[in-house]
Amino acid sequence: MSQGRAATPKAAEAQDRGWAWMVLLAAVLLQGMTLGFPSCIGVFFTDLQHEFQASNSETSWFPSIMVATLHGGGPLCSILVKRFGCRFAVMLGGLLSGVGMVASSFCKSISQLYLTAGLITGLGSCFSFQAGVTALGYYFVRWRTLANAMASTGVSLGFTLWPLLSQHLLDEMGWRNTFLIFGGILFNCCVCGAIMRPVQLASESLLQPAKPGEEQGRRAEEAQLSNGASPPLAELGEQRQGTACCQVLWDYLAFDIFCRNKRYQIYTVGVAWMMMGFSLPHTYLVPYAIQNGVEERRAALLISVIGIINILIRPFTGLLSGHRVFTGRRIYLFSLAVLLCGLSNFICVMSARFSVLILYCVIFSVAMSGIGALTFQVLMDVVEMERFSSALGLFTIVESFTLLIGPPLTGMLVDITGDFHYVFYTSSFLLLSAALFMGLSFCALDRKDKVKEASKVPLDNVSRCQYNETTTEPQTESQPPPAVVYVTSI
After folding, report:
1. CA-based Rg of the chain, rounded to a whole angstrom?
2. Tens digit of pLDDT for each residue in 50-81?
3. How far apart are CA 144 and CA 20, in angstroms?
4. Distances (CA, A) of 348 to 52, 342, 475
């Protein structure tokens, strides 16, 4: 359960009904165009190697930079959301991602591709995706778990369509013209952003323009003056700006939450470690199948199978995890999904026949649907919704480092050994260790909380052992009324 202040009547009318479902539809398309897009890069892996005469490690830096920027641009996205609103952030992201892919079609070296498709497109996808998730969290309260699960089906839709479209366009017109068409498709993120009109909250709107830093700077100045200090005007201005800047960075990057919230610490570290292995099959499954004699079209179909299964499974995962039985226990469902995902990789090691790889894709996609449906919902469970945008920014920038180094390091291992089996061995180790770390850590915290609650003396027993004194003076209402809370899960 996350706490927050009450919303205005206008905001309450917009939540969980009416236009909120249009925002959900836009979020589905956004996640399909952003998070689903890197799934098709494996289709171009061999062609890019031949075009630029690059090794496995050098070529894998291209999707690694894209995915790492997609996740690591969270703090910048948080600043844009706070300052200009979710609509602006989503539309700016669509513009950047489209321009990046158009520029990629004219690249003459693999290093230029790192900048255009990796950095620019990745950053644009980050703005569109994360601002869309934040907007969805404010449009849905009661049905937030279901909304997140439904929105994550967009990733599955992207996993299904992007590889098939990529292989078809690659066969017909080559990778350069394909990237040019991809740029036009990603421009449609701007249309999705236009749908996400702001919702004004009573206390503070993360969907409306704000002026961060002004309040902190004013308080710092007042504190100095109250101590009797009389610094020069220029020095006072520098101190004010420095204090405000540090405070804004501290708040935007959610370091205060990371320092005091152990559950947020464990979840952030665990997911970051998990992501280093979770991204490996998406990058190397198609090259692994091609190397073992699978036809290119059938190899590209493997990623689409993962997407199709995800489309069917994710809504049921959202409904299941939204049941009241799992309130406060979704982290264990998430850890179980990560555990199953790690175990499924051993199927690829056993055999590289197409039928066995199809079985692997089915099991992997079932586990992936649980991970995708619960990742952001668990984050909403462990932090307050008012700080979700900042918490999401730090959460994604931490995992971006592991997403960046995972595929290139594994690609270097493949270059040295010439064996793709090490990809799946590495992925399994990282996923299994992350699942055990998160599950056992949260279990220890829950048991510790239960011990603390059991050690407290019940108030009714204390009252029996004490005399009750009645005063003749009327009691003053010094206590403020209790805050209205949002229930983020049902």
Report:
1. 25
2. 888 888 778 878 888 888 888 777 778 878 88
3. 11
4. 29, 11, 72
| Res 16: pLDDT | 64
Exposed/middle/buried for 62, CB within 10 Å: 0-12, 13-18, 19+?
buried
pLDDT (mean) for 108-129: 91
Could you tell me the domains of the chain?
15-199 (1.20.1250.20), 249-451 (1.20.1250.20)
What is the predicted pLDDT for the residue at 317?
77
What's at 474, amino acid-wise? Answer: P
Q: Tell me the percentage of the chain whose pLDDT exceeds 90.
A: 20
Contact between 127 and 79 under an 8 Å Cβ cutoff? The reply is no
Q: Nearest Cα to 309, choosing from 166, 156, 161, 165? A: 156
Amino acid 206: pLDDT: 41
Question: Which of 162, 460, 431, 455 lies closest to 302 in space, CA to CA?
Answer: 162
Copy the structure tokens of residue 395.
């959460």
- The average pLDDT across 429-443 equals 93
Candidate ranges 34-48, 257-271, 414-428, 457-471; pick with highest mean pLDDT: 257-271
Tell me the backbone φ, ψ of residue 2, rounded to 5 degrees: -110, 145
